[in-house]
Amino acid sequence: MKKTLFVLLLFFSVGFSFLHIASLQPTHFPAPQYALPTLSDSSKIALGRLLFYDAALSRDSSISCSSCHSPYNAFAHTDHDLSHGIDDQIGLRNAPALFNLAWQSVFMWDGAIHHIEVQAAAPISHPKEMGSSIAEMVSRLSTSPFYRNEFYAAFGDSLISGEKSLLALSAFQLSLVSSQSKYDKVLQGLDAYTPMEAKGFELFQQHCRSCHLDPLFSTYAFASNQLPVDTSLMDMGRMAITEAKKDSLLFKIPSLRNLSYSYPYMHDGRFVKLRQVLDHYSGRSLQSPEGQKRILPSFTSNEKTEIIAFLLCLDDLEFVQNKAHQFPKKLLPGRREATRMSSKN
């Protein structure tokens, strides 16, 4: 009886993961920049998920990728405006939400990373984030029989390398697809907007779409958000990467999906409420990434409420509750030999 129950649970778990992977490509989305994972990548995704949640990737085993990117917050962080790293250090920016990465060509607020397969190397090696290095990570993982088995399952070879680790992390991140909001269901004829939501959608289409293009709700280009510089941070945005004056104070345009879960908002997390964001943009002169200048109307209180009503239609509860994205039970104490790894290794 116990054996039968175990087999059924295993079948359900594997079937759930396969179903998740098989449904990654939303039919109403444009073609992605990166190939989405397939069923043949399920073991790589599973390994990437382990690495994403394992604090052993940081210098003192205190910080994991999930420390700043929680699945319950659409893989953002809501406890503070700026990211927190190793040794209680404070970062420069708000931790961005992680979803629909396959449709993005550059990463980070300033576009410093140009390929998904090397994206994870940046926080792992950043002195204010995880404070480690790829070499140290590989050395530590290589001492673990648990991880040697997991790498063998993913790659057919138990030899652990930085390249394989980054490939697995990118496979997991590419599997984070958010496409089941009310907006998506309305588009597919499975739901309908309320009158307030419909009016908000109309206002959004008129005034916000040039930067937040549906269905991804971003162009992922760079633009000025017209915020005054925080003199305590002196974050000059993309100019720090390109050293071009024209890129001063330009930041990557974030997606507006899952805003209920991913506050605070803006690159430095200075706004906690959506109404504060709308207050900031109301009546403001803006320039689109294509160089087109426009002045937004001074939205009335009712119009702001209507726009927010629509924006809440972009929340994807199925995404934030998806068990295939959450902390893997294999990492629980007593479930693996990898817990023997320490900062001494």
Can you offer a commentary on this structure?
Strand 3 (285-287) and strand 4 (293-295) form a beta hairpin. The strands form two sheets. Strands 1-2 form a two-stranded antiparallel sheet. A two-stranded antiparallel ribbon has the order 3-4. It folds into two domains: 42-178 and 319-340, Cytochrome c-like domain (Cytochrome Bc1 Complex, Chain D, domain 2); 182-315, Cytochrome Bc1 Complex, Chain D, domain 2. The protein is mainly alpha-helical. 35% of the residues lie in helices and 3% in strands. The model is unreliable at 1-14 and 338-345 (pLDDT under 50).
Q: Key features?
A:
single chain; 345 residues; mainly alpha; Cytochrome Bc1 Complex, Chain D, domain 2; 2 domains; two-stranded antiparallel ribbon; two-stranded antiparallel sheet; globular; disordered N terminus; disordered C terminus
